[in-house]
């Protein structure tokens, strides 16, 4: 590693004093070295940043012109590209979950071309991506279809940069070239700082890059799934810091994080829980140090020894093929033993798995089996606290707020990072998702948050279910609702032709299938400002 001025603070952590002297400071023997600049968050580490991709509008159109239903739906929703796109790989300083100094990277997408929408003063979209286990996830790799971020990167380019928006999309600390050895998953403070630091670095980079594009006053924040949570946490942090967010559009995020975390322990195991549960527990263990004394207290022996260094790492397919995580089963299908006749034992017997009579039972049932990820003793200890101190979004006639004083360390950490209560937005928010989402519960998160904010001025908070029928021809999100209905029908038909369970295939594809339609709704929303 070269000891250039912009990365001296990194070298200081890696090199001995003798090696640093060999790097060369420009001072002669016996002369004091120049003072290091103070470390600051959001510092651009490479100026100008490397250009990682450049596509004309025509070339981008060709990439969107795929044969799959998803690619065709994406082109239908994005519209024809107006601008080309230059992508730059930003590297910048930020902090980890312990507020330690580290680095992260991001994609900076800049519209190109002669159309008036592609030059001059442009609005900026700050985007947070969804959960992915692959360490090499890099949204700046727009033309590398082997990169796990390729699909999301293409979607960002098509929806925003090709329509004249500047896009800043962090890869997050712990991913890509980041120096951090873990990912601070759903740590609201750290993830919002990471977003703000990427935004700061991009504002430094853009004038250096030139090209006739400058930033105007309009700043929009959006993201999907984990990124929906991060987007809303960033809106809150920016608002508290006095940074004006023109509008935000968090999509399908676990905003009611304490309730979302409680639900699987009650038996409502969502798809993706083995991945999300691993990331959440190890992230909070790193930040707070008290989630468990040793991994074996929470994780089954087959997984405990390697779990803390597992993520980010390999891609999802590799993790499953190697048996590093169970695909669905979070818990044993044999319920833990609570005192006979107790309310806790009754709850466990009735919810291992639940039999509620609705379509989600198929999803919940997949969350129990062998091999499974979490121990029965861990589930029992968690539920003892959840039953005594229920979350207001899950309890009948609850107040919608997190439990006031949870005692279990994981419940306490989730409450600490829950986005309900204590604040409300002062600029417009669109909460988009789908009612039957089997991965992130729409009723528990988006709908509950909308209800808690229902007393705010009319039009400030909009809750959008793209899995609903259009309200009429004047419905501003009519196209998104009709489009998602078409995709659902196609998934069911394809499953029947392939001899697969149609309802299970729909559940498998539902959460990812929402993304282009919520993204279209977000851009429609932003275009109005």
Overview of the structural elements:
With 529 residues, the chain is an alpha/beta fold. It has three domains: 1-38, no CATH class; 50-256 and 423-527, Rossmann fold; 257-416, no CATH class. Helix content is 39%, strand content 13%. The chain has 18 helices and nine strands. It has helices spanning 8-14, 17-23, 57-64, 69-78, 150-159, 188-209, 226-241, 257-265, 273-288, 301-304, 316-321, 343-350, 361-366, 376-388, 409-416, 443-452, 478-497, 502-527; strands spanning 50-55, 84-95, 101-112, 120-128, 166-170, 213-224, 247-251, 429-433, 461-465. Strands 1-2-3-5-4-6-7-8-9 form a nine-stranded mixed β-sheet, with helices on both faces. Strand 4, helix 5 (150-159) and strand 5 (166-170) form a beta-alpha-beta unit. It is globular and about 75 Å long. The two termini are 45 Å apart. The relative contact order is 0.11. Mean pLDDT is 92; it is low at 1-28.
How would you summarize the topology of this molecule?
Elements: H1 8-14, H2 17-23, E1 50-55, H3 57-64, H4 69-78, E2 84-95, E3 101-112, E4 120-128, H5 150-159, E5 166-170, H6 188-209, E6 213-224, H7 226-241, E7 247-251, H8 257-265, H9 273-288, H10 301-304, H11 316-321, H12 343-350, H13 361-366, H14 376-388, H15 409-416, E8 429-433, H16 443-452, E9 461-465, H17 478-497, H18 502-527
Parallel strand pairs: 4-5, 4-6, 6-7, 7-8, 8-9
Antiparallel strand pairs: 1-2, 2-3, 3-5
Helix pairs in contact: 4-17, 4-18, 6-7, 8-15, 17-18
């Amino acid at each position: 590693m070269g000891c250039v001025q912009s990365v001296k603070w990194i070298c200081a952590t890696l090199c001995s004093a003798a090696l640093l002297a060999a790097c060369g400071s420009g001072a002669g023997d016996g002369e004091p070295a120049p003072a290091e600049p103070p470390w600051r968050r959001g510092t651009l580490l490479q100026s100008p940043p490397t250009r990682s991709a450049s596509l004309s509008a025509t070339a981008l159109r060709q990439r969107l012109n795929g044969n799959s239903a998803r690619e065709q739906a994406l082109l239908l929703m994005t519209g024809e590209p107006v601008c080309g796109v230059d992508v730059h790989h930003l590297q910048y300083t930020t902090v980890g979950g312990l507020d330690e100094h580290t680095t992260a990277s991001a994609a900076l997408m800049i519209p190109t071309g002669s159309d008036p929408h592609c030059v001059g003063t442009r609005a900026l979209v700050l985007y947070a991506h969804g959960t992915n286990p692959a360490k090499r996830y890099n949204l700046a790799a727009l033309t590398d279809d082997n990169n796990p971020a390729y699909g999301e990167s293409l979607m960002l380019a098509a929806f925003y940069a090709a329509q004249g928006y500047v896009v800043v999309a962090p890869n997050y600390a712990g991913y890509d070239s980041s120096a951090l050895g873990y990912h601070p998953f759903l740590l609201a403070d750290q993830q919002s700082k990471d977003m703000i630091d990427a935004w700061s670095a991009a504002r430094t980079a853009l004038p250096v890059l030139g090209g006739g594009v400058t930033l105007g006053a309009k700043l929009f924040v959006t993201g999907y799934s984990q990124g929906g949570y991060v987007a809303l946490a960033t809106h809150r942090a920016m608002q508290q810091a006095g940074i004006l967010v023109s509008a935000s559009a968090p999509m399908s995020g676990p905003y009611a994080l304490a309730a979302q975390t409680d639900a699987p322990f009650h038996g409502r195991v969502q798809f993706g829980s083995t991945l999300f549960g691993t990331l959440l527990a190890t992230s909070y263990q790193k930040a707070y140090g008290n989630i468990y004394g040793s991994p074996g207290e929470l994780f089954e022996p087959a997984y405990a020894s390697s779990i803390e260094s597992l993520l980010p790492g390999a891609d999802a397919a590799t993790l499953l093929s190697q048996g590093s995580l169970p695909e669905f089963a979070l818990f044993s299908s044999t319920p833990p033993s609570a005192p006979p006749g107790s309310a806790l034992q009754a709850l466990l017997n009735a919810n291992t798995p639940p039999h509620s009579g609705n379509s989600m039972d198929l999803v919940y049932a997949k969350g129990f089996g062998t091999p499974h990820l979490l121990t029965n003793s861990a589930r029992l200890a968690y539920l003892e606290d959840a039953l005594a101190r229920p979350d207001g979004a899950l309890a009948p006639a609850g107040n919608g707020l997190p439990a006031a004083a949870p005692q279990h360390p994981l419940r306490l950490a989730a409450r600490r990072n829950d986005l309900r209560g204590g604040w409300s937005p002062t600029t417009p928010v669109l909460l988009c998702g789908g009612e039957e989402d089997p991965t992130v519960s729409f009723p528990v998160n988006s709908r509950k948050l909308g209800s808690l904010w229902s007393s705010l001025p009319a039009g400030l908070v909009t809750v959008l279910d793209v899995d609903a029928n259009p309200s009429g021809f004047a419905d501003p999100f009519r196209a998104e609702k009709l489009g998602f209905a078409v995709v659902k029908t196609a998934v069911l038909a394809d499953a029947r032709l392939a001899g697969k369970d149609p309802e299970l295939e729909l559940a498998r594809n539902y959460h990812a299938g929402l993304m282009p339609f919520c993204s279209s709704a977000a851009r429609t929303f932003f275009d109005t400002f």
